[in-house]
Amino acid sequence: MTILITGGAGFIGSNFVLDWLRESDEPVVNLDKLTYAGNLGNLRGLEGDARHTFVQGDICDRACVDGLLTAHRPRAIVHFAAESHVDRSIHGPGEFLRTNIDGTFTLLEAARAYWGALEGEEKAAFRFHHVSTDEVYGSLAPDDPPFTETNTYAPNSPYSASKAASDHLVRAWHHTYGLPVTTSNCSNNYGPYHFPEKLIPLMIANALAGKPLPIYGDGQQIRDWLYVTDHCSAIRAILADGKVGEVYNVGGWNEMPNIEIVHTLIRLLDELSPRADGASYAEQIAYVADRPGHDRRYAIDARKIERELGWRPAETFQTGIRKTVEWYLANQAWVRDVQSGAYREWLDRNYAHRGA
Fold first, then answer.
1. Catalytic machinery residues
2. pLDDT tens digits, residue range 159-176?
């Protein structure tokens, strides 16, 4: 018994690998291209662990995927691999279309051929789980109800459009070919190993480095926040008991505006790692020009997964965000390692013209 994970050196993928092997002895084959956001340092604790097989490769490489399926005969594929940063998709959408659409297509075709050759119980038990995002549903008005699994897709960025396309491919491969798939659409994750271009790790890293804390627009963009290990447990629940062909929205029941997130981080940093001059990190806040087409609000209605699979997040935002800040404070060497020259150039390019 083995599972194949794509993108297992990224933020959510690596947390899932670590969580899976804490909870189970079932081996993991981990396929990751190791782009800028993939980091084997996330998996350093698994060095020498025979349950973890890492393969550097591209989900767009059909021969590579076919070879892994033939060699390891997994009972499930969990598909995390994706380009995921909205700002990067605005600057360069091509890579998002390649990875998120072409890559998912390649993976689905490889899975279909592999599954089609299975027999009996092996065939009946096989699953393809696709990890997606709440951003495919578009933006909510302040009084709109949260997204449910039946919401119409209305993606507004190159990133969310590419993920929406991949969701449609997964659904079509089930409807047309019978491939046994499940999909989860998740709200914003946070926690350990989060690459510091996203809001929470960027604010922590910049605060500690004495740099500005860039806030897009008025900072009132609302998101639902989920601690990453809660996302991992939701996927485990879907793999175990999810109904083939179904979509499950996964959320943290934690809606709040970005500026409130930043002030929460500031309060924790003021407490846990105060500035040498005694001032608050709040002095570093810098409002910058908003990004094009910035969605105003996302919110997830996660009642279906709770009702059908008994899943609910274990962490509140208060417990999860404290754990996150404590992890970053204790792992500054990890932050330094991932902040390569290429990453610094990206930050300069993205924020320089916004006034930060």
1. 134-135, 159
2. 999 999 999 999 999 999
